[in-house]
Design a protein that fits this description.
9 helices; six-stranded parallel β-sheet; Quinone Oxidoreductase, Chain A, domain 1; QOR-like; seven-stranded mixed β-sheet; alpha/beta; Rossmann fold
């Protein structure tokens, strides 16, 4: 019997209940793992509230790290005792133990702790596909990254700076602005007190940026489009302030023949080779020291509701993890 955070009816943080759960039998291709650290992400809020509907009851969570307890028939590249991590795949990370398809697990390399892996997998692999595949960032580019002091933002801004890009970040309040300046941002705009569109135009001499990475949603759209140079790209990968209202695609022409995409890690790490390559790139850049993972808060698993309140209240910086 394992302990888990389960949702019986969608709603606020109070919908998270800590209870006993029975693990399913180990099937062919599965692995039984014991968690040592669990990542908390905004997609967990979307699942909890029902924005991304799930059949209830369900165990929350998409990211974790731990140790292999047992493997099912046909699993040849993992064995009991291996340290592993994952992001994406079936929900169920908010638990002391779980059974998961082994193909979703990657081995944690020496020199990377379980907590770092749990804090970095989803956010870091998101940063990888955003910077290396959705729009391939290089020294010739200037980028705008919203929520630069957040979990994905800190990783992505460090990584983009390492790749030679000029990074403009947005953050809310002096403390988060100061933090973002230490995480790869050449310029940071306080969206609470400054007009980010006007500041971007000032910083870029009126040219605009090559790409905007936007996980905020409602509060930053369509203003983000006014920051982009002609034929640049707007990349939406979240909606922490609420969903973006439907818009006429002609707006992209009006703003400069812009490209737009709504990206998701599930589609960039859909196959085993893609998953392994994405994780390897992430672990390499962490091991090199180019990207450091900031764990801003740790909560006991049973206090997951408090972690959600902090996340939704934008009271977090860096990554938040749960400890079973």
């Amino acid at each position: 019997m394992a302990k888990a955070i389960r949702v019986h009816a969608t709603g606020g943080p109070e919908a998270l209940t800590f209870e006993d759960v029975e693990l399913p039998p180990l099937k062919k291709g599965d692995a039984h793992i014991r968690h040592t650290a669990i990542g908390v992400n905004f997609i967990d809020v979307y699942h909890r509230t029902g924005l991304y509907p799930q059949e209830t009851p369900f165990v929350l969570g998409s990211e974790g790290a731990g140790e292999v307890v047992a493997v099912g028939e046909g699993v040849t590249d993992l064995k009991p005792g291996d340290r592993v991590a994952y992001a994406g795949g079936p929900l169920g990370a908010y638990a002391t133990e779980r059974v998961i398809p082994a193909e979703r697990l990657v081995k944690i390399p020496a020199g990377v702790t379980d907590e770092t892996a749990a804090a970095a997998m989803l956010k870091g692999m998101t940063a990888q596909y955003l910077l290396r595949r959705t729009f391939r960032v290089g020294p010739e580019h200037t980028i705008l990254f919203h929520a630069a002091a957040g979990g994905v933002g800190q990783i992505a801004c460090q990584w983009a700076s390492h790749l030679g890009a000029t990074v403009i970040g947005t953050a809310g309040g002096p403390e988060k602005v100061a933090l973002a300046k230490t995480k790869g941002c050449a310029h940071v705009i306080d969206y609470r007190s400054e007009d980010f569109v006007a500041k971007v135009k000032e910083i870029t001499g009126g040219k605009g940026v090559d790409v905007v990475y936007d996980s905020v949603g409602k509060d930053t759209f369509p203003a983000s489009l006014d920051c982009i140079k002609p034929r640049g790209m707007w990349v939406s990968f979240g909606q922490s302030s609420g969903p973006i209202e439907p818009f006429n695609i002609g707006l992209l022409a009006q703003k400069g023949s812009l490209f737009a995409t709504r990206a998701s890690l599930n589609h960039y790490a859909a196959t085993r080779p893609e998953l392994l390559a994405t994780a390897e790139d992430l672990f390499d850049v962490i091991a090199s020291g180019a990207v450091t993972i900031d764990i801003g808060a740790r909560y006991p698993l049973e206090q997951a509701a408090d972690a959600h309140r902090a996340l939704e209240g934008r009271a977090t910086t860096g990554s938040t993890i749960l400890i079973p």
